[in-house]
Design a protein that fits this description.
The chain is of the alpha+beta class. The protein is built from twelve helices and eleven strands. One of its GO terms (molecular function) is diguanylate cyclase activity.
Length: 372
């Protein structure tokens, strides 16, 4: 009995002590608040905030990469856009450029849409794509749970069941619509809608800033006629890469008979020829590749992750085939061609200037064989 009494006394004392400490703590917190100080309590961030912060982190890393690597605007847009579908867990996606003074065209898309006639689809959307028009006119995202039951949906895509269109605005201009596709009926939750809205805002803010910085930089490094990198850009590229250790291929390109084209058709037509050839080559280059105008009708390509002669020869054959397609300018039908030489780095040399000399010699050898 005596032990029980001692035990109850101890428990009572312990409870009183806990109560006293609790009252003292409350008074202390209240005093801190009254002194306009803050008592911080760690609260774990919400899942939504965690995802948005992760997305912002990726955007800033991407921005730094694009500026350091001197990417062109279309490449910057492509790289940024490709991050968003991953966060929305889509089955496929595409980004449709919607300029007001030119035809619509797809800039980039997921690999599982390669089989679709995207040029034809872009044309159909430009003329009959009511869902895209609604997105552009409202400058807000549009979600369609079942495209087969929606009257605005005109595409005959056998895969898409649910669709989300997100307009992407840079500065004051909507540059295009990101199409997010799901192959099963998608329930778009409130949190997912908020995330999509936040992603749109963040990507537009960062893109606008990157484009402004990029424009300031590119004014010094772009060829005004062809809108690819100029010789100054190549020189800066070489300064920053004295010794090459990564596998790259340098290709030297010279347009065949360009002086004769200028003499026959005039320099205005000659300029259009150059722009057409450059555009054709750009369309088959990857984001990580570089394209420089070396001077006049001479160009240099730097292609990453090429380490053997067989691969680069296939690429050159494809490029020459693309360039040789007939060009129609005004009433003139002109057949163009080009000679190309290459050098593999660091297989043949680890110096870019030396690689240019090697590729130049190979190009002239090809040109002389062509003339004979």
């Amino acid at each position: 009995m005596y032990l029980v009494l001692i035990y109850l006394t101890f428990v009572t004392f312990l409870l009183a002590l806990i109560l006293f400490r609790g009252i003292q703590t409350v008074k202390y917190i209240k005093r801190l608040t009254s002194n306009k100080e803050r008592f911080f309590i760690f609260i774990p961030p919400s899942p939504k905030k965690t995802v948005i912060n992760r997305f912002k982190s990726i955007l800033y890393e991407t921005a730094l990469y694009c500026l350091e690597d001197e990417k062109e605007k279309s490449d910057i847009l492509r790289i940024f856009i490709e991050h968003l579908p991953d966060f929305l867990k889509s089955d496929s996606w595409s980004f449709l450029l919607t300029p007001t003074k030119a035809h619509w065209t797809f800039l980039t898309w997921s690999k599982n849409l390669d089989f679709l006639p995207l040029e034809d689809i872009a044309y159909e959307l430009e003329n009959e794509g009511e869902n895209i028009r609604n997105v552009l006119e409202s400058n807000s995202s549009l979600f369609i749970k079942n495209v087969k039951e929606n009257v605005t949906w005109k595409q005959e895509n056998p895969l898409t069941v649910s669709w989300l269109g997100i307009p992407i605005k840079i500065g004051d201009e909507i540059v295009g619509v990101l199409n997010i596709d799901w192959f099963k009926t998608k329930k778009f939750t409130k949190i997912e809608k908020e995330l999509a809205r936040s992603f749109k805002i963040e990507i537009e803010n960062v893109l606008t800033k990157v484009f402004k910085l990029n424009e300031l930089f590119l004014n010094f490094h772009l060829d005004p006629l062809t809108e690819i990198y100029n010789r100054k850009a190549l020189e800066d590229y070489m300064k920053n890469r004295q010794i090459i250790t990564d596998n790259i291929a340098l290709v030297f390109i010279d347009i065949d008979g360009f002086k004769k084209i200028n003499d026959t058709f005039g320099h205005t037509v000659g300029d259009q020829i150059l722009k057409t050839i450059v555009k054709r080559i750009k369309n088959v280059l990857r984001v990580e590749d570089y394209f420089f105008r070396y001077g006049g009708d001479e160009f240099i390509l730097i292609l990453k992750n090429i380490n053997n002669h067989e691969d680069i020869k296939k690429i050159i054959t494809r490029l020459q085939s693309i360039v040789s397609d007939t060009i129609i300018i005004d009433d003139y039908i002109i057949k163009s061609s080009c000679s190309m030489g290459y050098c593999l780095l660091p297989l043949e040399t680890n110096n870019i200037q030396r690689a240019i000399e090697i590729a130049d010699k190979k190009m002239y050898l090809q040109k002389s064989n062509l003339n004979h």
